[in-house]
Amino acid sequence: xxxxxxxxTFVDLYGAEHDALGETGHLExxxxxxxxxxxxxxxxxxxxxxxxxxxxxxxxxxGAVVNAVLDSGADRCVFVSVLHASSDEMEDARVRVAEGDxxxxxxxxxxxxxxxxxxxxxxxxxxxxxxxxxxxxxTKRRGIAGPQVIERFPYLAGGKPGQLPGVxxxxxxxxxxxxxxxxxxxxxxxxxxxxxxxxxxxxxxxLELATESILKGCELLKAQDYWGYNQHCVTDKSDHRxxxxxxxxxxxxxxxxxxxxxxxxxxxxxDAPAPSWVAAALVTYIPA
Length: 288
Prior knowledge:
Number of helices: 10
CATH architecture: 3-Layer(aba) Sandwich
Structural class: alpha/beta
Strand content: 15-25%
CATH topology: Protocatechuate 4,5-dioxygenase, Chain B
Low-confidence stretches: none
Mean pLDDT: 97
Number of domains: 1
Distance between the termini: 41 Å
Shape: globular
C-alpha cells in the first residue's frame, strides 16, 4: 500500500471513530480508566505507556494516563510518540538502519515536534489522536487549562539514542515534567506479514505471545541494550523502537509492568483476514 495513503486512512479512521463516540463516549472512557490510580507512578519519576489502537478497544487505557497526568498536578507533560513511516524515504531509512547503516546518513534522523525547525512528518501521524481527544475532554470537564503538553517524535535512534540531534534539549524538557509515551508494541497476524501458519488469534495464544514479547522489550530497555531493543522491535513488529530507546537513555533503567492488555483488530484496514491485530498494552515504568 502507498504509505502516505495508508497513514491518511488511519487519520480518517480515528477521526471518524472519535466523532462517533462523541463527548459522552469520551467521558465514559476516562471514567473506565479510573480503575487505575497512576499519578503516583509519575510522581515517583516513572513513565506511562499507552497504546494507539482503535479508540473503542483501548481508549480506557489512554484515559487512565490522561487522568494520571492531570491528577499529578504537573505543569508540563512531555508526550513522546512513535512516528510511523509515511513515505518510502522513511521506510527505506528505517530498514537500512536496522541492517546496520549509520542513522546519521539519513536526513530523517532526529527528533520532530512543535516548535522544532526540522521536518513536519509528525503532523500527519495518527498516533497522538486519542490522547489529544481525551485530554481535551477531561480538561473541559474539570474546567481547567491542564498542563503544557509538549509532543516529540524521534526517528532512527538506531541503537545510538544519545547521538540523536536535539537529545540534550529533549532531556532538559523532561526535567520537572511528567513523561508519557505511546506504542503498539506487538503487531501480529496475516495483515502484518505473519505467515498464516504462525498467526494466532488473541484468545488462542496470541495474547500470551504478546505478553512475552512486551516483557522482553521491557527487560532490554531496563538493561539499556539499545541495539538489542531496536532489533527486538523489528522482529516482533513494535513501533516503539525509537521512542523507547530515547526514553531509556534520558530516564535511565526502568522496570516495566503490564497493567492491561487487549487486542485491537485491523484486518479491515489492510483488507486482510483475521487474525490481523495489535496488542494494546498499558504499561508502567518505575525507576529501577
